[in-house]
Every structure is written in structure tokens, then in C-alpha cells.
């Protein structure tokens, strides 16, 4: 029973709450907790914030201003706490009359009687849309960079943005991102569950083109008046979103790469808010788009021969290894035009590239089965795999003769050629690497025969390998007698021309064989498991030289030493290397250990651990000949290399627009990953100028210095 005394007490309490609310200078609402949360009082600033009048608010359930499906759990929590006498603070969507909702931070202060019953609740309301938006954009930016770091797909990155937008605006908005493709279409990205049934692509025409040619957003109040896909309109109307914002997305060059399509239940009148917010999100889309293009260039670099457009050797190995893992047997063929080098000498290297491209095209046109794969093997040959148990080599011979009956048009000239083919099988007993080696040997035999000729490798060909065995035998003696020496080639700062570091190059002059090229004895050493000994001898020579300079008080300079994959993964590689530098009392910071770019693909986790350990001791690491191996951004960006060396083949062709773009991408990649970009094989001032303009910091090549004996370099350093 409510007594008169209780009524007076309640009125006194309510007046106290009013004074407290007015003194707070905040927007507020007071509601009756005993009567369905009915609003008893609110101030004018609250009415302005919610676009209402006091008469529209008073006697209504306050929580009706907060209710939507996504917030019901939070609202129930608030009710439970205030009825328990606990103050509550929460951030949630707050409704407005005839305006979109805003993000509000509410403080609900319950007031109880002496029986611990909550009678009244004072709710202080702050509009935190701006701060909430900034927090959302920071979270979204962080999520985007994490997605880039994890090498997530472009689709995944766009899904992150769309889901974030839908969550931010819940439940009144659904978002799409439409990105231009090369086929004059728009790829449609959206949240996971909000826009089912919408095609992944649509035509880039009509209204969408109009949006992308503009600079600001466009508000549409009637979707029937614009030319967008019918399914987009159906979705909007089915979810009761009759309004839409459309805004172009620009990259850093201010080129339109797509647009936002934002469908809303209510007209959002704050155009400046929308444009500022989506301009920032558009920058994230542009970043992901730019990264995806760079990533594609790098992957193309990994799988494609850039001069012919054919699959490259690494693409070939990847495919054939997969076939063999599936139990496929087959044959490897290496095809080489006999006249290739003469054509290159007469008409240039581009003519040789064009010849190989045309040969591959004719071979592809004459395929009678789909289990054949053609790639570029070397600068002068193609490699073909045929996954088949029994192949008719007579048919292949007829096919080869047929494709060379007609002349090839190269550089405007009609050229007739002959082809040499070496063939070797791969099966359960012969692995791919051996099959390629055997086919390579077979094509060497074919090269000695006149006209178009085909040679099939047999075990008798092993006699020919005696030459390699001779090199191997002399190499073993050379290692014992320490015949391996070092030439040093400086790497210079492209801005100043000063020597920045040095590369140590193995040299072997045998008393019996004379000068033996590293291109010959290094592969033999790798096959025989002796390359680690060569690496150690080279490192010792370098350390001994540095120690002597240190003893004489001369300037020390960083020296790069090539490390073979077998040596790199040797169990005691790091500790053995550390002991060597300690033996000669050289700081590890003067040693750069160069490895091939596919080192991480052998065993990523081990490679990561080794490089981290080397880094901890102060060694620097370098990725050698980048672009010639099986490159992978997913591992490259996670391995803490110091240097990224651009292979000389790209520098040679840097005047080609496509090659220039690839080199620029590699330099930018190195910059983004915190690595020093080093260009190999610089032979002209023009190449050096181009590289300097692209942002490459270090160069190496005959234009600056040729490889030289230690004594000669000493004289240069001591000037």
C-alpha cells in the first residue's frame, strides 16, 4: 500500500535527482523503474540530440529508444543491474526521431528506497559517434594490416571491411565494395551473411560509371531511378533499405578503382560525416588493391618467364612434381633450336625470345592430348613434360618436323631452324631432378648431330658423365690443397658511388684443369655434398683478410659470402659460423650471409629460426638473385632478411616496360619489408640512373667494379 508519506518521499527523491541531473550539464533522462521504465523527465539538450520533443518522450519506455535485435542482450543486462541498484555504463546505438541512430555512451544511475527497491533511474547520455568512429577506423586499419601481414587474399580483406561496416552501422545499413576488373566489370564484395544471392561480378556501366567519374558521394532516395543491377535493388527493398549512398574509391594516383554502395533504412543527412569516414576506408581498400597488384606481379615473376610470357622453370617443376606425387610416370623433353645463338647474335636477344615463343605456340597448337606442359627451361631452350606411361616418340618426331616446315617470322625475317630434343623418363625410380639432368645430357648429344634430331637418354649415357666425375675428383683434391681462392666485387651506394659492402666470389684455378668456372664446380660440389667445405674455405679467407686489416688498423667493410642451401640447413651451421668469426675476432656485423630466394620453401620454420638466430648474433642476411627462383611473399615478408638482391637478368632488360615495372615492384617490396635493395649486374650509367630513380639504394656490376683479387681491392680501400 502506497501511503501519503511514501508519495512525499518519492517526490522529494525525484526532485533531488532533477537537481543532480541539471547540475551535471549533461543530456539526461529520468525514468520510473517501477512503471515499465516510463520516462518522467528529460532536458532540452536530450531532445535536440534525439530530434524529439518532451511530449514525444515523456511517459514512453526509455528502452524503446535503444531496442534492436543486436542490442537485446546488452539492454537486458542494463535492466538487471539497475534493478539490483548497480550503476551501469554502456556504449550502444541510440535511436533518433526521423534520423539515423547515433552511438551513445550512457550512464544509468539507479536510486533506491530504504527497502533496496529501485524507484528511479537517471540516465546521462553522451553522443560518442565521432570517437566510436575513430576507434572503429583504427580497429579496421589494424585488421587490414594484419590481413596483409598474413598474406590473406584480396577477397578476405574486402570481407573484413564489409563486415566491419555492417557491424558498425547495425542493423540499419548493409555495405558493398565494388572494385574494377580488367574486363570492364566490377567485382562485388560484401559481408558474410547480409547480401546472399548477389552475383560476384556485375557490369561496369551506367550509374556506377557516373559515381566513379565524380569526386563526392551521391545520395539516392529512390533506387528505381538509377541504373544498377536489379538484384541489388531487390536486396535493398527486401531488407527495407530504401536509401543508398554511393561513393567513389580512389588510389594514391587519384584514379577511380571502384566504389562503395551503402544501403540504409533511413536517410543519413550528415554527408560530410559519410564522406570523411568512407574516404578513410577507401584508402584501406586502395592499399589492399595496390598490394594485391604488387603481389600478382611478384607471383607472375615467380611462375612466368617475363620475356616470353611462357611458364618458367619453377612453374614447370611445381607442376611436374605434383604429377609425380600423384603416381604419374612420364617423360621430360628439352627442346633447343640449333640456330638460337646465331639468331641472337644477328637480331638481338629479343629475337631469340620471340623464336622460343613461336615454337611453344606451334607445339601447343599441335597437342593431341592435354597432359603436356611446356615452359621455358633456359635462355635458349624449352622444357616439356608428358604425363603418360607409354609415349610414341615416332609421333613426336613427326610432329617436330611438321612445326619447322614453315619458316618462323622473327624481326620481320623468315627464319628456318632445326630443333634438337633430349628425352628422359621420370618414374618411381627416376626423380624429376635426375630426369631433367638426363634430358639435358641427351640434348647435348643431339646437338652434335646434323639437322633436326632427337636423343633418348639411356644408362649408357653415364659414360658421358665421366667429365663431371673428373671435375669432382679434382675438386676433392683442390679442397684438400686449398686451391679455392676468392675474388672480391664491391657493392656501391648508388647515391654516392662509395663502396657499401663487398661480395666474395669463389674462384678455382686447377694445376691440371686450369681455370674452372664456378658454374661448373659449384653444381658438382652440391651434388657431391662438398659445397659446405667450399663455403667454409671462402668464409675463412674473408675472415682472415678482415682480421689482417683490423690488425693493421685499416677500415673494415661488410663482406657477403654465398651459403648453399645444404650448408644453410646443416645442423651446426649457426654455431660453426659464430665460432669462425670469434676465432678471427671479427664482429658478426661485417658478415652478410647470402642465400637463394627459395631457401624458405625448403623448410620455412627452420629457415626462420636460423635467420632469427643469426640476426641475434649480429649477422646480416641477403636474398640472392631474387626473381629467378620460386618467390613467395607469404614467407619472404616473415623472414627477417637484411638485403634483397635483384637478379641481373632484370637489370639487363630494364629498358623493357614490363621488366621496369617488375623491378620497381621488387624495390618497393624491399622498402616495405625494411630491406636494402641491391641491383646485380649493372653495366651502364643508364641502368644505374634508372635504378637510382626507382629508389634502389645499392648496386653491383662491371659499371662500378669487376671481381678482383684481394690485393687489388686493398689498394682501392686504402686510397
State Rg.
36 Å
- Segments where pLDDT lies below 50 for 5+ residues? none
Describe the strand arrangement of the main beta sheet, using strand numbers. Answer: 19-20-22-23-24-25-26-27
Number of strands: 27
Helix content: 40-55%
The general outline is: elongated
Helical stretch tally: 26
Structural class: alpha+beta
How would you sum up this structure, described in words?
This protein has 719 residues and is α+β, with helices and mostly antiparallel strands. The protein is 44% helix and 24% strand. Strands 19-20-22-23-24-25-26-27 form an eight-stranded mixed β-barrel, surrounded by five helices. A six-stranded antiparallel beta sheet has the order 8-7-6-11-10-9. Strands 2-1-5-4-3 form a five-stranded antiparallel beta sheet, sandwiched between helices. Helix 6 runs antiparallel to helix 9 and helix 15 crosses helix 16. The radius of gyration is 36 Å and the shape is elongated. The termini are far apart.
Topology:
Layout: H1 4-23, E1 27-32, E2 38-42, H2 44-50, H3 54-57, H4 72-83, E3 88-96, E4 99-112, E5 118-127, H5 129-149, H6 154-168, E6 173-180, E7 185-190, E8 201-203, H7 207-213, E9 218-220, H8 230-238, E10 243-250, E11 256-264, H9 271-303, H10 313-325, E12 330-337, H11 340-347, H12 349-365, E13 372-378, E14 381-387, H13 393-403, E15 408-410, E16 413-415, E17 419-426, H14 432-447, E18 453-456, H15 466-480, E19 484-493, E20 499-510, E21 514-516, H16 518-528, H17 531-551, E22 559-562, H18 565-568, H19 573-583, E23 591-596, H20 599-602, H21 604-617, E24 620-626, H22 633-636, E25 643-646, H23 648-652, H24 657-672, E26 676-679, H25 685-694, E27 698-699, H26 710-717
Parallel strand pairs: 17-18, 20-22, 22-23, 23-24, 24-25, 25-26, 26-27
Antiparallel strand pairs: 1-2, 1-5, 3-4, 4-5, 6-7, 6-11, 7-8, 9-10, 10-11, 12-14, 12-17, 13-14, 15-16, 19-20, 19-27, 20-21
Helix pairs in contact: 5-6, 5-9, 6-9, 9-24, 11-12, 15-16
Amino acid at each position: 500500500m502506497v501511503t501519503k508519506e511514501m508519495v512525499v518521499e518519492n517526490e522529494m527523491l525525484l526532485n533531488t535527482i532533477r537537481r543532480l541531473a541539471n547540475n551535471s550539464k549533461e543530456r539526461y533522462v529520468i525514468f520510473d523503474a517501477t512503471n515499465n521504465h516510463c520516462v518522467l523527465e528529460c532536458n532540452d539538450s536530450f531532445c535536440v540530440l534525439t530530434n524529439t520533443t518532451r511530449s514525444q518522450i515523456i511517459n514512453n519506455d526509455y528502452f524503446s529508444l535503444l531496442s534492436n535485435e543486436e542490442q537485446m542482450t546488452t539492454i537486458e543486462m542494463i535492466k538487471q543491474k539497475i534493478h539490483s541498484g548497480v550503476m551501469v555504463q554502456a556504449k550502444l546505438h541510440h535511436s533518433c526521431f526521423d534520423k539515423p541512430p547515433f552511438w551513445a555512451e550512457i550512464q544509468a544511475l539507479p536510486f533506491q528506497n530504504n527497502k533496496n527497491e529501485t524507484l528511479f533511474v537517471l540516465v546521462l547520455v553522451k553522443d560518442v559517434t565521432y570517437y566510436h568512429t575513430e576507434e572503429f577506423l583504427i580497429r579496421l586499419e589494424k585488421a587490414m594490416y594484419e590481413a596483409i601481414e598474413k598474406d590473406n587474399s584480396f577477397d578476405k580483406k574486402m570481407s573484413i571491411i564489409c563486415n566491419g561496416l555492417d557491424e558498425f552501422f547495425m542493423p540499419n545499413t548493409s555495405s558493398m565494395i565494388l572494385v574494377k576488373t580488367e574486363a570492364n566489370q566490377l567485382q562485388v564484395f560484401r559481408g558474410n551473411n547480409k547480401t546472399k544471392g548477389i552475383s560476384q561480378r556485375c557490369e561496369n556501366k551506367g550509374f556506377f560509371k557516373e559515381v566513379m567519374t565524380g569526386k563526392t558521394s551521391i545520395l539516392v532516395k529512390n533506387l528505381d531511378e538509377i541504373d544498377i543491377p536489379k538484384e541489388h535493388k531487390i536486396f535493398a527493398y527486401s531488407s527495407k533499405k530504401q536509401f543508398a549512398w554511393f561513393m567513389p574509391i580512389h588510389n594514391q594516383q587519384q584514379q577511380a578503382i571502384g566504389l562503395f554502395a551503402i544501403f540504409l533504412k533511413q536517410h543519413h543527412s550528415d554527408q560530410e560525416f559519410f564522406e570523411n569516414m568512407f574516404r578513410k576506408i577507401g584508402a584501406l581498400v586502395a592499399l589492399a588493391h595496390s598490394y594485391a597488384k604488387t603481389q600478382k606481379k611478384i607471383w607472375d615473376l615467380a611462375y612466368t618467364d617475363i620475356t616470353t610470357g611462357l611458364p618458367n622453370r619453377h612453374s614447370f617443376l611445381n607442376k611436374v612434381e605434383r604429377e609425380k606425387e600423384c603416381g604419374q610416370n612420364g617423360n621430360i623433353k628439352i627442346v633447343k633450336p640449333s640456330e638460337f645463338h646465331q639468331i641472337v647474335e644477328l637480331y638481338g636477344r629479343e629475337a631469340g625470345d620471340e623464336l622460343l615463343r613461336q615454337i611453344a605456340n606451334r607445339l601447343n597448337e599441335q597437342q593431341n592430348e592435354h597432359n603436356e606442359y611446356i615452359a621455358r627451361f633456359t635462355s635458349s631452350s624449352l622444357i616439356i613434360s608428358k604425363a603418360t606411361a607409354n609415349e610414341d616418340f615416332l609421333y613426336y618426331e613427326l610432329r617436330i618436323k611438321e612445326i619447322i616446315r614453315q619458316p618462323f617470322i622473327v624481326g620481320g625475317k623468315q627464319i628456318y631452324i632445326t630443333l634438337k630434343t633430349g628425352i628422359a623418363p621420370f618414374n618411381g625410380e627416376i626423380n624429376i631432378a635426375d630426369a631433367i639432368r638426363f634430358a639435358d645430357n641427351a640434348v647435348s648429344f643431339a646437338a652434335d648431330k646434323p639437322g633436326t634430331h632427337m636423343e633418348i637418354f639411356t644408362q649408357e649415357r653415364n659414360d658421358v658423365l665421366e667429365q663431371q666425375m673428373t671435375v669432382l675428383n679434382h675438386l676433392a683434391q683442390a679442397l684438400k690443397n686449398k686451391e679455392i681462392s676468392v675474388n672480391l666485387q664491391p657493392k656501391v651506394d648508388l647515391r654516392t658511388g662509395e663502396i657499401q659492402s663487398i661480395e666474395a666470389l669463389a674462384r678455382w684455378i686447377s694445376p691440371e684443369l686450369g681455370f674452372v668456372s664456378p658454374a661448373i664446380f659449384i653444381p658438382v660440389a652440391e651434388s657431391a655434398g662438398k659445397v659446405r667445405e667450399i663455403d667454409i674455405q671462402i668464409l675463412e679467407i674473408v675472415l682472415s683478410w678482415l682480421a689482417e686489416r683490423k690488425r693493421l688498423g685499416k677500415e673494415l667493410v661488410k663482406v657477403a659470402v654465398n651459403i648453399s642451401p645444404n650448408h644453410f640447413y646443416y645442423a651446426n651451421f649457426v654455431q660453426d659460423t659464430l665460432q669462425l668469426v670469434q676465432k678471427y675476432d671479427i664482429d658478426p656485423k661485417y658478415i652478410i650471409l647470402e642465400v637463394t630466394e627459395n631457401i624458405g620453401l625448403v623448410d620455412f620454420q627452420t629457415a626462420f629460426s636460423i635467420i632469427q638466430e643469426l640476426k641475434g648474433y649480429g649477422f646480416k642476411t641477403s636474398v640472392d638473385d631474387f626473381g629467378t627462383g620460386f618467390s613467395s611473399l607469404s614467407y619472404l615478408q616473415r623472414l627477417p632478411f637484411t638485403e634483397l638482391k635483384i637478379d641481373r637478368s632484370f637489370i639487363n632488360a630494364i629498358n623493357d616496360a614490363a621488366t621496369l615495372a617488375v623491378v620497381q615492384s621488387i624495390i618497393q617490396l624491399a622498402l616495405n619489408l625494411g630491406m636494402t635493395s641491391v641491383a646485380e649486374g649493372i653495366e651502364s650509367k643508364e641502368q644505374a640512373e634508372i635504378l637510382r630513380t626507382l629508389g634502389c639504394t645499392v648496386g653491383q656490376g662491371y659499371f662500378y667494379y669487376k671481381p678482383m683479387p684481394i690485393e687489388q681491392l686493398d689498394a682501392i680501400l686504402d686510397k
